[in-house]
Amino acid sequence: MPLYQTLRWQGDAASGTLMLIDQTLLPGTYSEIGCETSEQLWEAIRSLRVRGAPAIGVAAAYGVVTGTQSLRQSPLTEFRVAVVEVCRYLATSRPTAVNLFWALDRMREFCASCRQADSSQQLHDLLLEEAARIDQEDKQMCLAIGRHGNELLRSGMSVLTHCNAGGLATAGDGTALAPIFAAANSGKSIHVFADETRPLLQGARLTAWELQQRGIPVTLICDNMAGQVMKEGRVDMVITGADRIAANGDAANKIGTYSVAVLARHHGIPFCIAAPSSTFDLSLESGDAIPIEQRNSSEITDGFGRSTAPSGVNVYNPAFDVTPVELISALITERGVIHKPTREQIRLHLS
Ligand code: MRU
Q1: What is the pLDDT of residues 8-54, one digit of tens each?
Q2: Which superfamily does CATH assign the domain made up of 150-350 to?
Q3: What is the pTM of this model?
Q4: 7-143 architecture in CATH?
Q5: CB-based burial of residue 182 (10 Å sphere; 0-12 exposed, 13-18 middle, 19+ buried)?
Q6: SS3 at position 245
Q7: Ligand 1 centroid – CA 199 distance (Å)
């Protein structure tokens, strides 16, 4: 298990707080923040203090509890309306990771269909239990992804990953990194190349940190070095996470993932995506319909306290890209591995 908890609920429903590691400060500073209002959580998601598709979903589920704490004494009908409003508000924090909407839908539906509660106070307590279930299920999904992904790994392999899809991006062991942790636990020796992941450096700041913490050999490279290390024959497999996977298997993930997939295909290296079923959006026919978050230009021109571009330059900063399914060798989920995924296989796998 991870040596740290990306997020955790502290206390009871009435007065408890969602605690998050502030990931914007890593690796230099390890510190937790408490989110006591839904506005604070919204800001934490938007500014990537908590990030990674599954972690955003779990945080939002707890955020519904936080955002309705002051209404425990209100009439039930009023409380139910407030839950819907908090869900609607938190859903505006980031657009691409479907886990956010998945978790909020689940909280809203639980609230709407719950007949066990006679008061807002009781319903609020039950909402905390539902959020904790989402949290626990995410931990279990990570372990299962790890077990299935481990079957694809042999001792001595070198795996390249992009962005951070480790424990920091989930409530548990991660998605793309879970097979690596499982492999290490089963005695295999695996080396990881971590792309630094411009512009916000999740690979350098988070993946390299996490792997070091867990004693997994890791080599950090700039994003534009991936082709060279593949050409040198030093990469056996690529594994990344995903933020949203459409019904046909097209997968959105951190900007730069598509380039890595093209490079992997050129060099004959398997390109795998590890993600829980909560990351699939079967309502979307293909990746063309996945909304891509556009972020502030300052992330590119003024990242980490230093100006690195002329003032006033035009900037384009999409936070994600979509890898077409034909470049994906396998999808690893908590239910197993889909080799050479197709629309039909995905449908059967998730049904
Ligand atoms: O912008 P971020 O840091 O939230 O982007 C995260 C990613 O792209 C991850 O690879 C993805 O969410 C999968 S996390 C298990």
Answers
A1: 999 999 999 999 999 999 999 999 999 999 999 999 999 999 999 99
A2: Translation initiation factor eif-2b; domain 2 (3.40.50.10470)
A3: 0.97
A4: Up-down Bundle (1.20)
A5: buried
A6: strand
A7: 13
